C-alpha cells in the first residue's frame, strides 16, 4: 500500500515546523518566534504523508527586489525520494511568477547541498566574480 503525498502551498503549524527542523539538527528559537517567522513568509511549499509534515520550503524577502529561499527541509526518514525537488519546483514556480527584472533570488545552501541548487540555476559565490556569501547567527 503506497502512501499518497499531499503537496500544499500553505504554511505548516509552528510546532510541526519546529519538529521538522529538529529532525535535521537545526536549532529553533521560541515557538512564538517560529510562528511569527512563518507568518512573515512570502510563500510556502509543504509535503505531507499520512497527514505528517515530511518536507517543506519557503520564500522570504521583500516581495519586490529580494527573495530568499529558506528552510528547504526533508525529514531524514524521507530523504532520497525526490521531496526536495518537489519543494524546489514549487518555489521556482512562485519565483517565476513574482520575480521581475532586477530582482534577486538567493539562498544559503547547507554544506554539501550546493549541487542540488545548482540544478535550479543558482550560482556559487566563489569570491571571484561576486564576493563570498556571509551570515551571522545569534
TrEMBL record:
<dbReference type="InterPro" id="IPR053144">
    <property type="entry name" value="Acetyltransferase_Butenolide"/>
</dbReference>
<dbReference type="InterPro" id="IPR000182">
    <property type="entry name" value="GNAT_dom"/>
</dbReference>
<protein>
    <submittedName>
        <fullName>GNAT family N-acetyltransferase</fullName>
    </submittedName>
</protein>
<dbReference type="Pfam" id="PF00583">
    <property type="entry name" value="Acetyltransf_1"/>
</dbReference>
<dbReference type="InterPro" id="IPR016181">
    <property type="entry name" value="Acyl_CoA_acyltransferase"/>
</dbReference>
<feature type="domain" description="N-acetyltransferase">
    <location>
        <begin position="3"/>
        <end position="138"/>
    </location>
</feature>
Amino acid at each position: 500500500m503506497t502512501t499518497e503525498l499531499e503537496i500544499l502551498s500553505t504554511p505548516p503549524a509552528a510546532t510541526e515546523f519546529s519538529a521538522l527542523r529538529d529532525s535535521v539538527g537545526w536549532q529553533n528559537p521560541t515557538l512564538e518566534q517560529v510562528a511569527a517567522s512563518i507568518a512573515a513568509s512570502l510563500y510556502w511549499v509543504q509535503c505531507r504523508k499520512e497527514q505528517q509534515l515530511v518536507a517543506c520550503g519557503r520564500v522570504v524577502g521583500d516581495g519586490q527586489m529580494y527573495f530568499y529561499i529558506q528552510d528547504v527541509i526533508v525529514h531524514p526518514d524521507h530523504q532520497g525520494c525526490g521531496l526536495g525537488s518537489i519543494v524546489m519546483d514549487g518555489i521556482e514556480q512562485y519565483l517565476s511568477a513574482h520575480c521581475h527584472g532586477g530582482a534577486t533570488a538567493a539562498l544559503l545552501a547547507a554544506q554539501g547541498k550546493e549541487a542540488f541548487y545548482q540544478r535550479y540555476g543558482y550560482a556559487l559565490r566563489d569570491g571571484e566574480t561576486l564576493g563570498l556569501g556571509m551570515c551571522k547567527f545569534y
